[in-house]
Request: fold
Amino acid sequence: MTRVVLYTGKGGVGKTTLSAAAAVAAAERGRRTLVMSTDPAHSLGDVLAVEVTPGSPQRLADRLWVEHIDARQLLERSWGAVQDYLSGVLSSAGVDSVSAEELTVLPGAEEVLSLLEVRDKVRTGDYDLVILDCAPTAETLRLLALPEALDWYMRRIWPFERRVVSALRAPLSKAARMPMPDSGVLDAVERLHHDLGQVREVLTSDSASVRLVLTPDSVVLAEARRTLTSLSLYGYRVDGALANRVFPAGRDRWRAGWVKAQQERLRSARDDLDPVPVLTVPYLPAEPVGLADLAALAEDVYPQGDPLALPPVEPPLGLERLGDQIVLVLRLPLAVKGDVDLAERGNELIVTVGSYRRVLALPGALQRYRIAGAGLADGVMRVRFLPRDGGRRS
Reply:
């Protein structure tokens, strides 16, 4: 099965360099490796010291490929029918064609569709490892939350909307004097839902994980802590954190001050992120560029120089049976009780952590149970369920 590793972090922390270094090291160890960029900035080619043409994988060395995803081409292929419809609506309202085309480019759509390319590359079986250089943290979180959010909409709202639009297309078009979506547009929405569901299956499987890239700075560490909690909430495994640009020890007072401050923050990071390992990346005298520099960097960072040598992590979501109870276990590292809210709505469990929310569709087995209690301790939420025909709420 193809291994998938996502690298994300605050903008400017060096995730592109570290994702490229991991790819070079993996290829040198005999793994067919593809490193891809879903970041619109596309700086992988600069780090690898090669000219990369967007569109298809480009071979750099034995067992190593790189790809800058051509998101615009993907958008036209996967979302063209919907975009044409929206352009028609705007044109009928008097918007000129150029403005209409600009207005129908949905924010973030290109990044979302780039994940479909990731899914396709994994499904080919041509690679042992696919590494993703993701967009900065906030965009990545929105991206990874979208498949499940769209799934809720498609399960709860879409069937009704599709029936109404199909039945009233002709009279509504005549009354409103603007085009109504035809079956091709509706099919495109359903196809996107199906595709994103497959993306989520790939990225939350046992063979996928996320790595947080950070620098030992207070602001960056605070964001990394929140990111770890949020990724776990959405069901993504985090198997490592890489602290980049760590100063080496030195005798001069200026460097000694930085070293001391960074070491204190690293100790705090290791305590907070445990059991996620925190690897350190030295602040090098020159920027690592090219295959040789990147291979040397990976050798310094990973155990035995192998980017896949990190221990596996438990899935963030699981079920346990205790007598007649079923316990839903949701790992929320670093979450505190005051920031977590739990609600039940029909066959759904709504978990909110800070500004992030996840709607969990309860499996069929749990739909015959009721919530008997819930608690959060040591970064783990446990929700206890008892059969609806017995047991006492506590």
